[in-house]
Amino acid sequence: MKKLLCIFLMLLLLATLGGCGGNTAVGNSSGVETGETGDQEGNEEEVLHVNEFGWEVPKETITITYYAGYDDPAEAEKYAEPMAKFYKEKFNVEFKKIVYNVDMVERLNLMLASNDYPEVITWMPDDMAERFIMQGKAIELTPYLEKYGHNITRRLGKYLNLLKTDDGKLYKLPVGWGQNPNVAGWDFAVRYDLWKKAGLPIYKTPEEYYETLKKLMQMYPTNANGEKVYALSDNSQGANLYGAMLGAYGFKNGFKVDEKTGEFTHWINTDEGLEIARYINRFIREGMMDPDFLNNKFEDWQAKVMNERVIGNIGTWWHVWVAGHEAWGQQEGENYNIEKRFMNVTVKAPGVEEHTLLGSNFIGTSRVIMTDKCTQPENVMKWWNWECSELGTMITAFGPPGPENVWDIVDGKWMFKDSTFDNARKNEVFHAVVEKWGGKAYWMVTSGGLLEHPNIDPRVTRVSTYDFWPIKEDGSFLDPGVNICWQYTDGKSWDSTLFTVTFKPDDPITTVKQTIDDTLPSEWAKIIMSKTDAELEANFMAAREKLNSLGLHDLEKFYADSYKANVEKFNQLCN
Amino acid sequence: MPGIRINIRPEGEATTKSSKLNKLFKRLYREKELWFIAAFAIVWIAIFAYYPMYGIIYGFFNYVPGKKLSECEFVGLKYFIEFFKLPDVWLIIRNTLVISTLNLTIGFIAPIILALLFNELNNITFKRIVQTISYLPHFVSWVVVASIIFSMLGNEGVVNDMLIRFGFIDKPIGFLGEGKYFWGLLTAANIWKGVGWSSIIYVSAIARIDQELYQAGAVDGLGRLGMAWHITLPGIRPTILLLFILGIGGILNAGFEQQLLLGSPTTREYHEVIDTYVYRYGIQMGRYSFATAVGFMKSFIGLALVIVTNKMSKKLTDMSII
Amino acid sequence: MRAPYIKNTISGRIFDFFNVTFMVILMFIMLYPFWNQLIVSLNEGIDTARGGLYFWPRKFTLDNYKYMLSESNLGRGAAISVLRVVVGTTTCLFCSGILAYITTVRWFSGRRFIRLLYIITMYFSGGMIPFYLLIVKLRLMDTFTVYWLPGLFSAYYMLLISSYMYNLPEALAESARIDGASEIRIYLQIVAPMCLPVFAAIAVFSAVGHWNSWFDVILYNPSGKWDTLQVYLRKILLDVEQVGKLVDEQKKMEAMRKLTPVSVRAATTMIVTLPIIFTYPFFQKYFIGGITIGAVKE
Asked: Average pLDDT for residues B278-304, to the nearest whole number?
């Protein structure tokens, strides 16, 4: 029996050792492979030719390894295949894109701790980029940018200043940046078919919106199955309700901004805030709000919308698209009536000059860096620069041009295929085809927002990395459904970039912000669930007092200071 | 259980030292086989559990992943103090303790009762089927459980619908939206999900009880209740005590996922617990040290409670887990 | 079947009636979440989004299963899962069992020390980063070993098994010792057979634990070479979670559109959970009947 034990333990030991020794590729598996491509610098002059897409094809293959965040590794590789082939053949460039099914921040921390990360990291949150920069693990980009990055400097312009450190150095670039290409942002939606049948006038203020919903609810108290119909519901635990309202009141990121004095006031400290609370409260007290609105998750809410139990929506536009006509179109197929959809409407509170329903943050929230493991910054920067060219952006977004794909280059123009103009089947004829060609598979640095160039198909508008909208010659949307959705949406966006605030992990204000973020939803819920006006006001004042005691005034000041600093930074060094 | 303390470094006078050492070696030699096995267990745990414990030190530094510890600022108890300065900290401690206590009482007794009831089933096939089915909810994720609970208990859910139809109430009860129902709801959900799973260990412990004891009990005229009370229950007492003592050590772990999924802004004052708080103020904000510090504090209290409870158990019942 | 020595009284029969009734209700309640997932998985995807599925599928289809089975490499994942369960459970059972055994040998001087050594680790750990670095250092990344080696000895199982061994008659073990049997032999031939029920329970715990674990798989197997079946389910569920974290509305919309439909998620749940559920019935025979240890009591 002793033998038995010995044998077992031996086996155990062997298994352990075998398990260790059998794996020689440990270091490489996490994708850090920088040595091979280090000698590219010498080949700069020997560039063979510039290909038809404006890329100087190198003699030796350039390989760029980068980490791009959360995704399924196996699927991502399969997805990128057509694109990889295209880039290899036409560009002589290869990518090793690393993704993991692990939360990006978690993984980045492990990479930092084990000092094991690739040469480029993209789609990382700003504070993680800062963490790499602070530890000296990112390369300063300015010299390379000056030499090779003209597309980047041209398209980002003064916004680059915002990304610089206080001493004027640049370590990070944005990814997925650009002006918001959307027509709608926050909005006040209504079921168009019901609204039209009722013959109601269009609403322009919150009050008129309330009246509209009230009338519609009286006319359609139940759906076809006899279930109760509500004017509104929600899937954000109540946050979208004030979010959209603040847009109608012209608040900026939740603050009332006095441009003259530079003062920021949080909405809970304003009279408008109280008005908004009263407004929402009325829906609840009068039974117009789905009683489960604080508990719905997106899918619960979608079920209610699909079952025609919700007439309106105060929130963001795409929710009612995805849960509304896209779902109905899919479900009802041939029988689908295009008027059965939600209409997104711009609503402005009386006396407000400009609404802020559609914000546009030019530099977005995602960043890309070159790490200190990068031995070929010139090559990477050249690639980034190509990717940031308009044609590069088109290819990155929609895949290689060609008669089979959704777009092609015809007489120098970047034309979308006619078949992609069928908006009702857009998922099938556009999104699915782009996916087949590996669109967006290798998206490292370029814009996600509005793309403008004289070569872009004149029959479409608002082209972005994600989408485009075909239009008629008079400028209206080609698709009648889209026209219905957006006929009363003015599409005016405001630039929110300078209102961006960075919270550093160990700054006390970050804890204050978190506390406010935690407390606000429950206080807000308490306020709007009030049974009487007096109770509402009391709850509102109590919430105001509570939040102020938690440091809301400090937060207001912090936002104001950040804005001021951003403005200064933005305008500095501009020639 | 008479515990034998081992003397790693026997102290004393030089003369007795050698004889003591001698004794020790003799003893170790006698126990060589056991120590040989133990050596593997000790090496293993040294590598996989004790070596990584250096991470605990991060709670006392302003640690940033990637930096060497020597480059990080030593902050002492800063994060421990910060935890107690968080707004609502007493609220979350209250919630943690209440929810844990409910889990440790009702939630603890339920699987024992279930195991006893299983034991009383006569038909073996039926017994096996019920046992198997009772552990199924363990395999369903909290997300699914939460969505089922919502569709059952929502304002338009089946439960409210029934209550209204039978005239018990005339307005739906907001089971999900009102804080006062939350603790009950959570405990019920925890039991639903875990009772069958937790009863397995008791079922196995019952199987250990000597059948002769029951025969002797029958001779003494014990009924079924009497047997359950006087034979079965004492038979599984070591297991019950063990799990209870370990449970006491986990009193500061009141769950995490279920709170996030079942809670809503209106129940925040009842559902927020230490773990959900630390998740947001530590991990989500990238404050690794803070999360480590609070984790350490929880472990410390947990282990201390285990040792104290164990002492009490030893005194009262002569049973000890250490 | 009830043991013959127990009298069948009237109150006993009434109790049996209520007990069986209770069990039937319990079965219904316990089966329900699972049943719910089953019918959702058998319902057409688009129709499921309308909600309101309680007891029967509205539009029956097998497409969700077909989709799942055709889309991914489930077979390989299942094989790795089975291997993990078998290797992980046997090694853990053997090691934790023998650990429990040596800590119950009364004259063993290291008994308390080892128990304490293990109990401490139930409460203190170094956190994710040091453990990750350890795995990297031991070169266990992307190996199968990482599944079973870090779980070889379990403090919790050790305590459960030893609470069971507590009070087992020592006479047999002692007499074997006098006959010169080695400890490992005593453990395997005398102690372990008496502990079958608890080993069966631990086997269920361990097997289910190994089958269900996913975090170590995605963290320590970045190459995906050793992906288990559970990972396929987790990836789908994690995608849902990840959408909630997106800040950018455009990306959110994109992600929401691509989200795996509820029905396919349910189908995956069924495919991934059904096999492991049968471990319990498999081990149940060790729970029933009980053992007679009176013979060794003298």
From this structure: 89
